[in-house]
Structures are given as C-alpha cells and as structure tokens.
Amino acid sequence: MVADLVSPDKVIKMNYTLTDATGNVLDSSQEEPMEYLQGHQNIIPGLENALEGLKPGDKKQVTVQPEQGYGNHNPELIFGLPLEQFGGEAPQPGMVVQLQSEEGVMMATIVKQEGEQIILDANHPLAGQVLNFEVEILGIREASPEELTHGHPHGPHGHHH
Ligand code: ZN
Predict the structure, then answer these.
(1) Strands, E, within the chain: which ranges?
(2) What is the separation of C-alpha 83 from the centre of its chain, rounded to a whole number of angstroms?
(3) Are 24 and 145 in contact (CB under 8 A)?
(4) If you measure from the C-alpha of residue 134 to the centroid of ligand 1, how many angstroms do you get, rounded to a whole number?
(5) What pLDDT, on a 0 to 100 scale, did the predictor assign at position 154?
(6) Which of 59, 64, 65, 149 could form a cystine bridge with 46, CB 3.0-4.6 A?
(7) Are residue 17 and residue 96 in the same domain, yes or no?
(8) What percentage of the chain exceeds 90 in pLDDT?
C-alpha cells in the first residue's frame, strides 16, 4: 500500500503558524488543527502547491510571495465614504466593516478619517505581504463524496459553512 501523500481530493489536517516578514505571528492553528481539501483552493495557491507530496509527520517552512498569496496591494481599492454613512461617528482605524456594493457584500478595513470622509481599504488585510508558514502535516484522509461536491472538508463538528 502506498503511503498517503498530500494530493488532490485528500483532506489534510495540519498545524501551522503564519508570520510576516518581520517575524510577527499573524495567525496560527494553536487552538485546533486545521483541515482543508487539497486541490480546491481552500488555502492560498503558494501554500497548497508547496504542501503537495508531503506525508504525515512532515514539517515544512514555506515562504509565499504576494502573487501566490493574497495578491498585491491594489491602490484602486482605497476609497472614501462620507462620515454620515457611519451614523456621524468615525469608526476606529483597523476595524473591518461590511459594505453593500453593486457586486454584492464586500469587506473593507477602516484606514483613517480625513475631514468629513472615512478612508477605507478593500484589499485583503494580507495583500502585498510576504508570508512565512511553518507547517506540520498531522494526517491525511480520503474526502467523502459530500465533501468533494462542496469543495471543502466538514470536520468533526459536522456541517458548518
Ligand atoms: Zn459543505
């Protein structure tokens, strides 16, 4: 029997720590290992490609450039909205808000107040950043037909989206 390797349509359980270029920890799976479905864009392409072929117990350090991560920072996604749209009270910089646009709901981060305008940034918070992942593969299993249809794993807590 061939050992399980990280390959398309397998559910991968892993621990990871994500740090930025200066070593700050941005995110980690410390609370609970993360599961994802390989080959279904559950995670950023740079990480998914780097994990291909690993086996349980393997550890790997992966550096992901913005092009293979959350994209480059696009200055056109910075825009202003009148303060009155926030009920006249300026939201805190760094706060993430949900906006209704013509293309549907979008998320944007409050940058600052400029006079009667609130400046927002709709880039992904990690856009433009070089990301360092430290990954340990904990387990690999076959995906259920339902998971394959949905394109993501359903995990021990049942079905949640
Ligand atoms: Zn589902």
Answers:
(1) 10-19, 25-28, 34-37, 59-64, 78-82, 96-101, 104-114, 117-121, 131-142
(2) 30
(3) no
(4) 27
(5) 92
(6) 64
(7) no
(8) 84
Same domain, 20 and 33: yes
Contact at 8 Å (CB) between 118 and 110? yes
Token pair recorded at residue 20:
């930025």
Q: What does R_g of the chain's alpha carbons equal in angstroms?
A: 19
Classify residue 102: in a domain, yes or no. Answer: yes
How far does residue 96's CA lie from ligand 1's centre (Å)? 26
Distance 42 CA to ligand 1 centre (A): 12
Give the model confidence (pLDDT) of 81-97 as tens digits.
Answer: 999 999 878 899 999 99
pLDDT band at 159 (very low <50, low <70, confident <90, very high): low
CA 32 / ligand 1 centre spacing (Å):
19
Note whether residue 159 is domain-resident: no
- Residue-wise pLDDT tens digits, 113-148: 999 999 999 999 999 999 999 999 999 999 999 999
Ligand 1 geometric centre to CA of 38 (Å): 15
Taking the CA atoms of residue 161, residue 20, residue 6 and residue 15 in that order, the dihedral angle to the nearest 10 degrees is -70
Q: How far is the CA of 154 from the centre of ligand 1 (A)?
A: 6
Residue 7, both tokens: 């390959």
Q: Is residue 132 part of a domain?
A: yes
